[in-house]
Amino acid sequence: MLLHATGKYLPNRWVFHFREALAELVGREGAEGVLRAIPNPIDDLTGSGQDLEKSFDFSRYAAMCASVSDVYGEEGAQTILRRAGHAAFTRMLKSTAAMAGVERPGIPAQPASESFEAQMQSIVRLWGLLSDLECACERTEGEYRFRIFACPECAGRTAAGCLCHSMAGMLQAALDWFGSSTALTASEIQCMSQGASQCEFSLAGKT
Questions:
Q1: Given this model, what pLDDT does residue 150 score?
Q2: What is the rounded average pLDDT of the residues 80-88?
Q3: Which of 129, 135, 108, 130 has its CA nearest to residue 119?
Q4: Which of 13, 36, 53, 89 is most deeply buried (CB count within 10 A of its CB)?
């Protein structure tokens, strides 16, 4: 899938961790096959490949996720992308959490507590510092909603269903980091690929 540049960027390290997680899940050859299947192939990252320079356009990330769906099918891609997103963001947190004051993992948090809201606001700040993601988190209708207004995963894509599986995995990684994973799960409930004005995720109790 050839997508137009958005002028919004992810840091190299974020994409490096994501690609490494993909390779661990589907094998190095499988991950390379995903990259080769993109019409405008993604070559090596600039710089060290692990720095925090924001130079990886959202459209390239979207094309990479779309290629996973093309190669492994929508159902397979949902599992692969969610797990890769979770692993990638957990690794990002280990090296960057102090930037937003969330350097202590595993702090138990109750969904309705002020501490949980503060923790999620720290994720909003961290994503804003690291990338050009535009997002917000607020409590509504008895649960928390995480909204992304500029999303790298569905940028330029259209679909009948929600596409942002890796972003859901990253949000779940944040919940795990704060010790909330036993109580909450991150699920996308609307997506800009469907024509919505934002990608919206429910952070609600597990069933």
A1: 95
A2: 98
A3: 108
A4: 89
Among residues 39, 46, 79, 45, which one has the least CA distance to residue 62?
Answer: 39
Q: What pLDDT score does 70 carry?
A: 93
Calculate mean pLDDT across residues 49-74: 91
Residue 71 near residue 37, CB atoms below 8 Å: yes
Per-residue tokens: 171: 């949000």
* pLDDT band, residue 158 (cuts 50/70/90): very high
* Residues facing 145 on adjacent strands: 138, 202
pTM comes to 0.88
Mapped to the 3 state alphabet, what secondary structure does the chain carry? CCCCCCCCEEEHHHHHHHHHHHHHHHCHHHHHHHHHCCCCCCCCCCCCCCCCCEEEEHHHHHHHHHHHHHHHHHHHHHHHHHHHHHHHHHHHHHHHHHHHCCCCCCCCCCCCCHHHHHHHHHHHHHHHHHCCCEEEEEEECCEEEEEEEECCCCCCCCCCCCCCHHHHHHHHHHHHHCCCCCCEEEEEEECHHHCCCCEEEEEEECC
Query: Binning pLDDT at 50, 70 and 90, where does residue 106 land?
Result: very low
Is residue 83 a contact partner of residue 21, using CB atoms and an 8 Å limit?
yes
Q: Give the start-to-end residue ranges of the domains of the chain.
A: 9-205
Say if residues 198 and 182 touch (Cβ distance below 8 Å): no
Tokens of 126: 């961290």
Q: How confident is the model at residue 170 (pLDDT cuts 50, 70, 90)?
A: very high
Question: 9-205 belongs to which CATH class?
Answer: alpha beta
